[in-house]
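> forwarded from #structure-qc
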């Protein structure tokens, strides 16, 4: 986390880049592609070697999970719109609601 640098109007700006880099996305893409490839290969191997005898049936759901999980995760991230907060402090500082005293309200202290 970077150290905050004061800016006018009480907002804060961070010196360091809080976002994810392109290399991080590349590693995630390659690892998800590798997991899907392993799942597809495992399913193909089961189909070739064990399907005629219907043995080793545990390989089918395991390989299907490996094959489709990265695609489901990517789809859910695209649908959600990548709305991940970089910093919770930014969310707190961006709130513009005023807090009013309870002196004149119905629930306020009686004088």
């Amino acid at each position: 986390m970077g150290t905050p640098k004061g800016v006018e109007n009480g907002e804060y700006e961070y010196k360091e880049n809080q976002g994810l880099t392109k290399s991080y996305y590349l590693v995630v893409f390659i690892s998800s592609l590798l997991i899907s490839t392993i799942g597809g290969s495992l399913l193909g191997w089961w189909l070739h070697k064990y399907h005629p005898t219907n043995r080793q049936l545990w390989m089918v759901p395991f390989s299907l999970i490996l094959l489709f999980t990265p695609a489901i995760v990517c789809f859910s991230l695209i649908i959600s719109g990548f709305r991940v907060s970089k910093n919770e402090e930014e969310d707190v500082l961006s709130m513009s609601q005023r807090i009013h005293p309870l002196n004149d309200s119905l629930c306020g202290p009686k004088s």
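QC bot note: Residues 6-17 have pLDDT under 50 and may be disordered. The chain has three helices and two strands.
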